[in-house]
Every structure is written in structure tokens, then in C-alpha cells.
Amino acid sequence: MPRLKDATMQTGTVRGLQAFKFSGTKIGELGATEYTLVTIAVDTTGSVMGFDKELRDCLITAVDSCKKSPRSMNLLVRVIFFNSALPNGIDEIHGFKPLGDIDPSSYPDIVPDGLTPLYDACFSAVGATLAYGKQLMDQDFLANGIVIVITDGGDNVSSATTTMIKKEIERGTKGEEIESLIAIAVGVNTKFCATELAKLETEAGMKYIDAGDATKSKLAKLAGFVSQSVSSQSQSLGTGGPSQNIAATI
């Protein structure tokens, strides 16, 4: 659920599962004519205890790094945390907002808790991107999207399924609601669940990348991967297709 009441923001509902809502900047408040919608979803389940501070630092660095993109004025960023102890498993830290309106240093501490509603996080992140993107396209804006889900565990408590995620992604790739969409799952500390996470690629249609152990250096590289991927997708806006420059490894 959106956490803040902000007069510049509007709310919406993810198609298919009415429990998932999102927020985005009111279209009348936007100054550009084209945008890349960025969603970063961070696993905050009990298993991230021990590297929760480093994970938050990674998120802050990633969003800060996006501000250095030559197309930073054309990015609208949304950040969500997910674990089963949260209402509906999702906590929207902020909805789709211009980078200039975001202070990453104000992101709350990660409080590890609960199980892993991974499929719900993926489904809601993709669905919110499509729903807000359609609103933009209907108002003659040009929009594409990128969803990056960072997790250290396989799903064990979702309502959504890999089939549902795949259908949402396919809607995004048809170009009817948004010009193009890239959905990436990044695994951290996944030696016990790599096979399970690979289903996001084989069954859900996401790109899956194993980032390795949750060391400081690896998480710094992950932050760089996020910002570079966002920049690449933004640069592809207007070409009619997704970026072909997303790295295959971290």
C-alpha cells in the first residue's frame, strides 16, 4: 500500500489482484513528454538479517547513481519492500516519482521479518508499471519500464503464480500499454534456492541473474548494475523495443 498522503500523487490498483495498490505522480505534475518507469523491489524477509544494512546501502547507492544518468530527468522511480509480515506483503516506500523529488538517504532501515511473497512482489511490480504506463500513454506520453526485484530466497507464501507474472510481462512486451518492459530478478546469497529462483526465468519470463554472496563489494556491483540497466532501458525509449544492453552478469 502507498504509505504517504501527497497532493502530487495519485493512486491506482494492479490488474487482477485487487489487494495490490500503487501510487504515481499526478500526470498534470509531470514536465517531460516521455518517461522510463523504474520499480526496485527489495526482499526484507527474515533471511536478509545480517546484511540488511548493506542491502539498504545498495538501494540508496543504486537510486543515487540513477541521478547521474544523462536521462535522469526522464526517470520515474518506485521502491517497494516485501515480506509476509507487511500488509498484503508489500510496503511501497514511495510511488513513481521524479528522481529530483527523491531523497534516498531517507529510506527506512530494513527490518527483516516474515516469509517471502516473491511472486506477489514480481506480479505487483510489473502490474503497477503497466497500469501507470498505460495512464501515461493514454495522455500521449511515451513510456517504457524496467522492474528489478532483489531477493535472497524462493517464494513460499504468494497468491500470484509464475504463470500470472508471465502473462503480465507478455502484456508489457506487446507494446499496447507501454512501449516496452524489462523484468529482472536478481538473486543474492542464493546457494540454497538458486534452482527455485531460476523458475522466474523459465516459467515467469523474467531475466534471472545470480549476484553471488552478499558481500560489500558484490552489493556495490549490484547497485551499479541497477543504475546501468535503468539507464540502458531509458536510452531505448522511442525505439519501439527494450534495451539490448542489459548485462548478463553482475
Could you please say which CATH topology applies here?
Answer: Rossmann fold
Bulk shape: globular
- Summed up, the helix count is 6
Through-space gap between termini = 31 Å
- Please list the strands of the largest sheet in the order they lie side by side: 5-4-3-6-7-8
CATH architecture label: 3-Layer(aba) Sandwich
Secondary-structure element pattern, one letter each = EEEHEEHEHEHHEH
Structural class: alpha/beta
Strand content: 15-25%
* CATH classification class: Alpha Beta
The mean pLDDT is 95
- Give the fraction of residues assigned to helices: 25-40%
> Which segments are poorly predicted (pLDDT under 50) over 5 or more consecutive residues?
none
Structure, explained:
The protein has 250 residues and is of the alpha/beta class. The chain has one domain (9-235): Rossmann fold. The protein is 30% helix and 23% strand. It has helices at residues 52-66, 118-138, 162-173, 194-197, 199-202, 216-235; strands spanning 9-13, 21-25, 34-43, 75-82, 90-98, 142-151, 181-187, 207-210. It has a six-stranded mixed β-sheet, with helices on both faces. A hairpin with a 7-residue loop joins strand 1 (9-13) and strand 2 (21-25).
